[in-house]
Every structure is written in C-alpha cells, then in structure tokens.
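Alpha-hydroxy acid oxidase: structure, please.
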Amino acid sequence: MTSDADRSAATAECVADFEHAAAAVLPPDVRDFVAGGSGAETTLAANRAAFDRTFLVPRVLRDVSRCTTDATLLGRPAAMPLAVAPVAYHRLVSPDGELATARAAKAAGVPFTVSTLSSVPVEEITAVGGAVWFQLYWLRDGARTLELARRAEDAGCEALMLTVDVPWMGRRLRDVRNRFTLPAEVRAATIDTGGTAHLRPTAGSAVAAHTGQAFSPALTWATVARLREHTRLPLVLKGVLAPEDALRAAESGVDAVVVSNHGGRQLDGAVPSLDALAELAPVLGGRCELLLDSGVRSGTDILRALALGAAGVLVGRPVMWGLAAAGEAGVRRVFELLAAELRTSLGLAGCADVTEARGLRTVR
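Here you go.
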C-alpha cells in the first residue's frame, strides 16, 4: 500500500513543493525554528535574492551527450557537488531523524554532516554507512570538545567541520516569540548537557539559552590551531565571509572553508553567502577548497555556486522539508530533484561535467 508520505515524495517536482508540504504538517513553532532567520530576516531574504540576480552565460556547440554530476569533495568522490549541511535536531520533524537523512544521503552518494546538536548519537549515524562528516561547536570545556572530535573520528567520520560564526546564537525572533522549547523526546544526543532546552522559558528561546550555556564565545585562531594539531581528519571552517579570514584559514592548514552566513540565522545584515563567494574566491586563488552554504534551492543554484568558484554546496532546509513531508523517501526525492536539475542545467550551459562549470561566466 502506498503511504501519504510516498505519494508526497512522488509528486514533488521541486524543493518548493517540499517546503509547502512540510509547512502543512509541522507544528507552527517547529516550522518557524527550521525556516526562520535572525532579526528582521534581512540576510535570510538576501541569500535568495543573491542567487536570483546571478545569471549564467551558457556556452554552445559542446558535446554534452555524456553529462555527469560526479564531483570530488574533500578528496573523496561524490555523486554530485553537494553535502548535507549540519542541522540540529532532525527528530523534531521526523521520528527517525538523522538516521533517515543519513540513509538517504548514502543512497544519493553525497556526504552527510552530523551536527554537534544531532538528536541521534554519531555512532548510530556512521553505522548507516556512506560518507559522514562531523560538525563541531567549540564548547566552553575545550578538553571535552577535543574528546568529542576524537569520538567522531573513532566513529568513522571522514572530516571535521568547525563552525566559527556562533559565539552565541543570533536573536531569532520567531523562536523568541514562540518561546521555543524542545519536546521531551528530542535532545542533543551526542553532547546532552541536561534539560535547559526542554524548560519552557518565561521569555526568549530555550534552545538559545541552552547553546549560550554550552558554546564558548572565546573561539580564536589559536583554537583552530589546537584542533588542527589534534586531528588527522580534513578540517573545514564553516561560517567564513571575509576574504582575510579565508586566507588566514588556508595559512592555518585548513583543508576547506564553507562560505556561509548560517542561513541568515546569525548576524542579520551580513553579506549574502553567494556575494561573499564571488569576492572571496579570486582572492583565495585555490589555496583551499571552497564550499557554499545558505540559500541553495535548486540544481541551477548549485551551478551558479560552481561558476563563482565553489567546489560544492551544503544544503540544509530543503533536506529538513523533505524529511518532514515524507521521511527518508522525502529526502531521497530532494536529492533526486537536485541531481536532475543540476544535470539539466549543466547540459544547457554547455558543460559536460562540474569541472567545466567552473569556467562559466556570470553576470551579476
């Protein structure tokens, strides 16, 4: 018998279809937690506007009869230049949570990034198989953070992604107004620090209060050097927007930088990630790998990011919408749609593969 979730996944023809389907089934406060940004959500909106004003200059009379989306990310093969972004608490939107997402990512041949605030322990996620990266928030207890990095490495994670733009959580007004609180059955399974995020506050967001207690606002370049010395895994810095910071990251032995404004959830008014990529890539000059996060909603968006110098993109909200609407089948369908759109866009732009896409001109 075909379930409602299977029908929802089968009939979706773009990411926006899943956004609408997820909005219809999620509780309003959870929908706001996933979709919302900080402040007036200026940067949240600007991320999409940056893609919409970036136009590609296609090439013609090129053989695209064998058009492929195959890519290499952090030295490993991937079926397309995409990884799942680190997003907290997948069990907020579906009972299987990160396990369903990890299975879908494995089937799609793309890496899955486990959040420090994952609602499933990292060991259970790596047991699914597939390529798994681990996103690290620097905790107030530095020794415990290094233990967490070692735990991820021992579990089989293939890379560490240090988020560097969260000294504390941005003021996300939707969560503040909802006094957002985690339900009892959802917790940060890898770093559980008690019930702060489950206690409904008299004002503000319980999740913001929890992260404020757990995360260190004293993260510096010395911390990056400490982590670099501690791990043999590829090290990625997520949340870089300034060219000067990207250059210093490369000089510090970082393997990749994620150009990201945290999906518009941190500094409201920060530059759109795609605009930052356009400025940063020529300055960095290939000193380390570049990934783009924030606002990706289609295969054409992926092509735009490649043309502006990215090796690949991270996708967060679309994955959560697919998971909320149709579970694992929904996430699989999101990946299928993005792969099909990317292949179509590559061919129409005259590119047989993602390497040729990096030679496309853009008009912005």
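Notes: The CA atoms of residues 249 and 257 lie 8 Å apart.
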